[in-house]
Amino acid sequence: MEMLEEELIPWAKETFGWDDETEEYEEEWTFQQDSVPSLRAKETQAWLQAKACEKSHKSINSLKKAIKKAWDEMPDEMVARVVDSWPGRLQACIDAEGGYIE
């Protein structure tokens, strides 16, 4: 979680603009999972499905709110597994010069 707070979030705010008043990004962007094992895990997928998609969403905003709520409720252990995998994944991306990595 520390890496997200110290690296990703500040980068996203600078890159996509951040409105402190509305607490929304000025440009829409998406944080996409990269299929690391901890994100592909059946447990993680089932948890997200149950939390964010337990009902149909009539708008993108509704889905975004559900995902944000699910993120806030995600157990610390689950987040830690994801965050702990980042340094190695980022280094692999650098080593592959942005090319394919496993």
TrEMBL record:
GO MF annotation, one: nucleic acid binding
Recorded source organism is Acrobeloides nanus
Q: Which InterPro entries does this entry report, sorted A to Z? A: RNaseH_sf (IPR036397)
Q: What is this protein called?
A: Transposase
